[in-house]
Amino acid sequence: MRMARTAVIAGATGLVGGELLRLLLESEAYTEVIAAGRRSTGTTHAKLQGVVWEQDRPEAALEGRLKGADLFIATGTTIRKAGSQAAFREVDYELPLRLARSAAAEGAASLVIVSSIGASASSRAFYLRVKGELEQELGKLGLRKLVLLRPSQILGARAEKRTLEAAAGAVGKAFGPLMKGPLARYRPVEARVIAAAMLAAAQHAPEGKTVLESEALPAEARKLQQRS
Q1: Which residues contact 107 (CB under 8 A, 6 or more apart)?
Q2: Verdict on whether the full-model pTM lies above 0.70
Q3: Which InterPro entries does the annotation name (predicted)?
Q4: Contact criterion met (CB below 8 Å) for 110 and 147
């Protein structure tokens, strides 16, 4: 029987993070769940602790809480929402890197983070380049277990309205089943599937670095059901 442990989730108010928070609270693997972010999740549960951080010092709010914990990072924004490339980089690069450095320094059991399909430090696309640069830096930290998830378009009901994304999601959902072979990687993936894959990977992925491409996420998510 596995020892119960602590889960720390950054970004629990987001689309994937909200799904993951629900799974963590239901999971018997964790006796304590710490949800950290810029605002409260609004959720109450016997094993849930909420931590609100200052935007420029997220790691300070979690100081001393990461030793032996599984850290899940599901933070993220868009350049349009952030308002500039610099603001986007602060949320999607600087913030998770600060948390990851703390996780490495304190001896976290694992770090599981949502990246993006096509992430590459050499990409010409700013969004993908930032994601790739983050992956590159995370790989240098010496984390005991690092799992990078690279989902394609994420489907789910968002709190904020994103008209273009909703339209693209509808198209992707309709044509997703037709995407086979090399195109399977580009099928949209449900937020709940990504969340389940994150939890399964934290529990079952080997030590070291693991990269889960988008087409591998459904199978990883099923491991959670098979071993629950």
Answers
A1: 66, 67, 68, 144
A2: yes
A3: Him1/Fmp52 (IPR014843), NAD(P)-bd_dom_sf (IPR036291)
A4: yes
Contacts of 175 (CB under 8 A, 6+ apart): none
Q: CA-based Rg of the chain, rounded to a whole angstrom?
A: 17
Cα atoms in the Cβ-side hemisphere of radius 13 Å centred on 139: 11
Tens digit of pLDDT per residue, the chain (228 long)?
456 799 999 999 999 999 999 999 999 999 999 999 999 999 999 999 999 998 778 889 999 999 999 999 999 999 999 999 999 999 999 999 999 999 999 999 999 999 999 999 999 999 999 999 999 999 999 999 999 999 999 999 755 555 555 444 444 444 556 556 666 788 999 999 999 999 999 999 999 999 999 999 999 999 987 655
Q: Which domains are assigned to the chain?
A: 5-226 (3.40.50.720)
- Residue 61 in contact with residue 193, Cβ under 8 Å? no
Using alpha carbons only, what angle is made at residue 137 by residues 131 and 143, rounded to the nearest 5 degrees? 115
